[in-house]
Amino acid sequence: MFAPFLAALVTLAAPLPPAPAWRTPFENDPARNTTATYAECVAYYQRLAAAYPAHVSLREAGPTDCGLPLHEVVLTADGDADPARGRARHRPVLFVQNGIHPGEPEGIDASMMLARDLVQQPRLQQLLAGVTVVIVPIYNVGGALNRNATTRANQDGPASYGFRGNARNLDLNRDYVKQDSRNARSFAALFQKWQPEVFVETHTSNGADYQYTMTLIPTQHSKLAPALGAYLQQEMLPALYHGMDQKKWPMTPYVDFAGETPESGMQAFLESPRYSTGYAALFHTIGFMPETHMLKAFGPRVQATYDLLVTVLETVQRQAPALLAARAAALAAQATQTTFPLAWALDDKPSETVRFRGYEAGHRPSAVSGQPRLYYDRARPYTRPVPYFNTAHATATAPAPTAYLIPQAWGEVIDNLRRNGVRLERLAQDVTVPAETYYVEDFQTAPRAYEGHYLHSQVRLRPVAGPVACRAGDYVARVAQPAARYLVETLEPQATDSFFAWGFFDSILQQKEHYSDYVFEDLAADLLRREPALRQQLDEAKKADAQLAASGPAQLEWVYQHSAYHEPTHNRYPVARWLGAGTLPTQ
């Protein structure tokens, strides 16, 4: 599947059974079909931190939309939970987040067990040597409080669970860039504080039926800097797959495919920054979304998640020098990067082949409609090669400016940039500088609301170079900084998850002044008499456009749009690109 993996891995022995007093709600259920509630989960970590203060810290990490706090659990070998000191000691950080979709709760229970075993089991304690583990016990607190037993209609257990939407009915795994929720804002501050090398967010999949309990979405390697992408493909992923094989959990890439069944060809999940792994990639963090299979029982799903987290921790500890070196190389490469990708597509040719363990599929009449329906036959398992489309290419790029000039009026944008680690300066005085601005020529808008927004796409821009007037207090965001990818992909309008795409700048798209036809008729006629070149442009436009030629109101509007009467800010993107001519008086 991946590049040859030569290093022999030593898998730690399975941990001893926990003492009865330390069993989780999941472990206390003989049927292994119970997941901890929010209150039970937090209380468990509180007890663990009180019993093992030399290794476990539990802290509130900011508000969530439901009013209850987000928590962070920090596990270290020496009790030092300070991120700066950990970075100074070249100690990589493994950041695990659970319960973004509380109806997919395996990670909640697996992480409780793992945290306990890391401080109680001598055979596992060694994994904390040289690695800091940060756990968010339950990210979507409001969804976890909204317990039910029916909303995961396709899933085998647990008996009750939380709901996908948070307290504002937002899907938090679409909120990593726009950060509408307090959850996402608290997460961003936490992520920037720790700047993890590896980020794992636990999930459960929907989709086809197959033999695997665990599937895996890694950060799309093509979207990482070359050194980091190569490390992921050639060293880290082979170690994870081998480690899970050793633990008797054969694993496959996340099962997404173009046709009706997986044999049609597996497709890598092409995550954009709205998703966890896409967001992490903007900061040169390797992200993973483990997706257990919904049709496997809850007990095996929790155990597979536990074993994957152990395998990731084993790998981070063992490969720490290579991981840190690859990330350092990625940051160094970004410092000299002149062009940034904004949108991506998978290549149309497979990059490799996966030995896939599936079930034969067929069709039979539906008992509901009588029409043919798809089914998978578990009595007919197979293992066969399946093409895997796992390489992506950029479909839009932008040359990097020296800095972006952001008017102070756009406070929500400024807040998001600051929260996500972007360094900002402020202009000390009014200044007019040569820069490049965009006019939005065209775009498409989704007809229905998506996560609280009407998303824009297919953005077409007209760049204009010229003087840009800035006011004292306006912001300067220089691209030469560690958060450069986040900065570019949020401020370039053509990027898939730019702030423009999410509607943060929609007010520029509405014209604020217009005219009365009967008044402007005389002004337009006088304008055409005084400016023969404008009359010629209108005549040429009429020759090229029959509808324009046939419509008096359309011609009047054309003159207005091409005159000084038309407001210059209409459709003008307010963030300017400063290309470095001269200096900026910043404070």
From TrEMBL:
<dbReference type="Pfam" id="PF00246">
    <property type="entry name" value="Peptidase_M14"/>
</dbReference>
<comment type="similarity">
    <text>Belongs to the peptidase M14 family.</text>
</comment>
<keyword id="KW-0732">Signal</keyword>
<dbReference type="InterPro" id="IPR000834">
    <property type="entry name" value="Peptidase_M14"/>
</dbReference>
<protein>
    <recommendedName>
        <fullName>Peptidase M14 domain-containing protein</fullName>
    </recommendedName>
</protein>
<feature type="domain" description="Peptidase M14">
    <location>
        <begin position="34"/>
        <end position="316"/>
    </location>
</feature>
<feature type="active site" description="Proton donor/acceptor">
    <location>
        <position position="291"/>
    </location>
</feature>
<feature type="signal peptide">
    <location>
        <begin position="1"/>
        <end position="21"/>
    </location>
</feature>
